[in-house]
Amino acid sequence: MGKFNLVIPAAGSATRLKPLSSNISKVMVRVNGKPCLDYIVEAVNGSVEEIVVVDGKFDDIREYCKIKHPKINFVKQPKLNGPRDAINLGIKKLKNLDMPLVVWLGDAIILEKDLPLGEDFLLTKEVQDQSSWCMWDGMQYYNKPKWYINDAVALVGLYSFAYGPGAAKAFDETDEYDISHALENYAGEWGPFQKIVTNKWYDIGDLPTYYKTCAELLNLKSRAFNNLKFNSELGTIRKTPDYHNNHSITTLRNEKMWYEKLTPEQSMFVPRILPHNTDLIMSYESGILLSDLMLYENLPSSVWDYILEKVFTIKLKYFNDSVNNSKLANKFSKQSREMWINKNQERLNNNDNFSRVEKEILMSYAIDIHKKTRPIEVHHGDFHFGNILYNQSTDQFKLIDPRGQYGSYVGTLGDNYYDWAKLAHDLHFGYSSLVNDVPHNTVVNTIFIEKIMKHNLDYDLIIKGGLLLLATCIPLHYDDKDRQKRMIKKVKDSL
After folding, report:
1. What is the pLDDT of residues 336-354, one digit of tens each?
2. What is the mean pLDDT of residues 195-208?
3. Among 108, 232, 422, 490, which one has the highest count of C-beta atoms within 10 angstroms of its own C-beta?
4. Helices (H) and strands (E) in the chain, counts
């Protein structure tokens, strides 16, 4: 595969995805935490000469690319005159037309490998309902036909041209709304397109297809300790451990037990669990992670105030079952030492990025937290925005991926302030922002602090715990040195 230019038409908004997203470009819609744009850029990485994105009324793509993809160039489509016009604007922005051209629609997620990008081909898919697509039978194009076209396939948003100047001429010499006229012009002068049929194209056209795509892509997503499988007929996610890994088996067993021991009211805030001897089978929940909303959606402070109040209410009202038992209290004092002192001491000892004084300060936080008596309550164990789903259409919140263990104790109980500290390491210290290398959402942080004060929680305890958890999770991110550097700097600046 040689070098080629890439044009990404992305001027359309995600209007058909409301209320999931109402004020972002469609190319910035997150599918399992990653915007559509990233799927495209990753697919052409190393082969593309120049990328031009054609955007519209929103500036969210440009702001995102300043950080994630600074080499991408932009041109704005001032008036939404259709995809053909957008592509033409993008081509005119290219610095060098004398090379192959690929046009990839911004909302097309395509995971097909080894495509001959830069050669003359159109990517297609067989569909039952042809009325929503531009259909092609190899000779003629049919835009959203009202009758079934035999031997026709749908164009799914990836067009490749071996001769860049010819593509530029074809798109410039027609003023038609649709792409098909330009395709006809190009093929008439430079030769026919190869037809490539794919089964690895994923649609996010509306809410039902968006959620279906998110679920289907889970099947392709590898996890460190378990495998995920989506069942479209049942609408379930199945977690299966690595049966050759004892840690994997134990982790999944603990998570499963946590779900099963919840009260009926608490179960309303988690996926529904189906009985199974070993695997964890749960309902697939539609929604968006609060971490994605925080990182990528420009929501007003009033909305964040509402969301955070809901999160605090769920935690304080429905997951605050205190247990007053002297034997249990003594046991949990040992668990607290294990979680706050022993674990963190071990991780800090093995981290050479902090000075002796910095380690001593952090461990003084751990000792302060351990010494302070708190009730034994229902404990999630990994309570941050990356584990809270929000369905905006139903206004429902779901907690996912609980630890199911506090120290060596297995069950639903633990230190509730560990959960609050987990939330602080995300919202106050910017864990999600640091992981994804995007600016910290200061609006969310401000409201988070206000909620701590409003609900009379121990601010000092939560903030100390949050910074400690951020510092001691750094070794877990050994696969990304730049990410570790960002985290280290944040901890040092916060001491």
Report:
1. 899 999 999 999 988 889 9
2. 84
3. 422
4. 18, 24
pLDDT, mean of residues 147-153: 91
- What's residue 219's pLDDT? 59
Q: What is the DSSP letter of 192?
A: P
- Mapping DSSP to helix (H, G, I), strand (E, B) and coil, where does residue 232 land? coil
Q: What does pTM read for this prediction? A: 0.75
Handedness of CA 378, 383, 386, 388 (dihedral sign): positive
Angle (CA) 196-229-246 rounded to 5° is 130
CA 198 – CA 110 distance, rounded (Å): 9
CB 284 within 8 A of CB 345: no
Are 113 and 150 spatial neighbours (Cβ–Cβ below 8 Å)? no
Half-sphere exposure of 45 (CA within 13 A, CB side): 8
Q: Compute the distance between CA of residue 372 and CA of residue 215 in angstroms, rounded to an integer.
A: 43
Q: Read off the tokens for 455.
A: 């609900």
CA distances (Å), 348 to each of 372, 420, 460, in order? Answer: 22, 21, 21
Structure tokens at 75: 């041109």
d(CA 415, CA 213): 37
**Token pair belonging to 122:** 């159109």
